[in-house]
Amino acid sequence: MAIENGVKATIPTVDAKGATPDALADDVIQGLKIAGACIIKNLYSQDTIDKLEAEVKPHLTDAGNMTYFQKNVVTATGLAGKSETYALEVIGNPMWTKVRDYFLTYSKGTFWVGNNQGTHETSAQLGSATCLELRPGAEAQGLHRDDLVHQGFNTEDKEYVLGRDKSLTFFVACNRTHKANGATRIVPGSHLWDYTRPPPAADDKTSIVDAEVERGDGVIILGSVYHGGGANTTENEHRLVLTCGVTCSYLRQEENQYLANDVKRILRYPLPIQRFIGYGSFPPGVGLVNWDDPIKIINPTFKEPEPATA
Ligand SMILES: O=C(O)CCC(=O)C(=O)O
Ligand SMILES: [Fe+2]
């Protein structure tokens, strides 16, 4: 994305209306490769957002002295277990599933075991499941990359190379999100920069784009793109955004899902979602309990589903 020549940067935008999840995901993947961020219009119905709000809002608590949030930011955490609609509709969204699998599935290695040399394939798991409400007076966050959590460090690339990212974040807007109430500020193209390069100055209007979206729209960013919450300069608007962070299978989850959740609630979800939240293991051997599938700990009567027959 050419943003070096004084031309205002833009965030690719796709419309979910009428698109299959598969086709939508393909367009989002293209947008993310080019810009490191993509806006998805009309992703959720107003009814679904109503349900999400009703389930999440009672859990909002003042972030207080939490490490990286500013004053006047109120959060809810551990949403995987607290909101069934979040688990099924946000974590389980088929477009989001395809997009995160695309970016976080790649070969690592090679590794030797005796005379055998092979590679291992990564996959995706939940990183964090939160809600961020910016209240009037919240100041802008410093522009950052979310992969700093996992000590991401890349050199410059001219084009996107699979394996560059260790994480992605999906934002779901629960109300109209615009510059004045703190829309996320994004630097399109910065996912390809050398990591020694600092973010643009906070007032750089050419490189920084406010991800302005309507209620029910989504925004996806790669862990390698510079971004940050905006300032809420309104008198009385609250900016309410759900976040779903995902990370590579071999890394520690940003939010400790084993302690954040009530496992009784997790057990009500479909098996792939239980595993994605963290109650699963990854080859060749991460997350095992008794050298076995951790799902058997939370569900002692668990039986592997029969493979589907044609
Ligand atoms: O609030 C936002 O818009 C972005 C939050 C964010 O980037 C973060 O907490 O890492
Ligand atoms: Fe961030």
TrEMBL record:
Organism: Penicillium chermesinum
InterPro entries in the cross-refs: Fungal_Metabolite_Diox, Phytyl_CoA_dOase-like
One Pfam entry name: PhyH
Source species taxonomy: Eukaryota, Fungi, Dikarya, Ascomycota, Pezizomycotina
Protein name: Uncharacterized protein
Organism superkingdom: Eukaryota
